[in-house]
Design brief:
- The protein is mainly alpha-helical.
- The chain has a domain of 36 residues.
- The protein is built from four helices and no strands.
- The longest helix is centred in the middle third of the chain and has 16 residues.
- The termini are far apart.
Length: 76
């Protein structure tokens, strides 16, 4: 009955499609837009990192929720 109501669609359903073969094309390599040199930390950057590592080891860190609660106390 479906083919009687929609004859064009019934023909489309029986149509076979030829499978295409891959063309052998490869994706292009991404363009490198950054420098490939190694960044050397300055003395002040190195000191900040060392101090941060000491703070973490000593437990002097806060979660975002703790910081939000402290800021709320300061503002209100």
């Amino acid at each position: 009955m479906g083919s009687m109501l929609f004859p064009k669609q019934a023909k489309m359903a029986t149509k076979s499609y030829k499978q295409t073969e891959p063309t052998g094309m490869q994706a292009e390599e991404p363009v490198v837009a950054y420098s490939q040199s190694v960044y050397t930390l300055t003395d002040s950057e190195r000191k900040l990192i060392m101090r941060s590592e000491e703070d973490i080891q000593a437990g002097r860190v806060y979660t975002q929720a703790e910081v939000d609660k402290m800021v709320e106390g300061w503002l209100y």
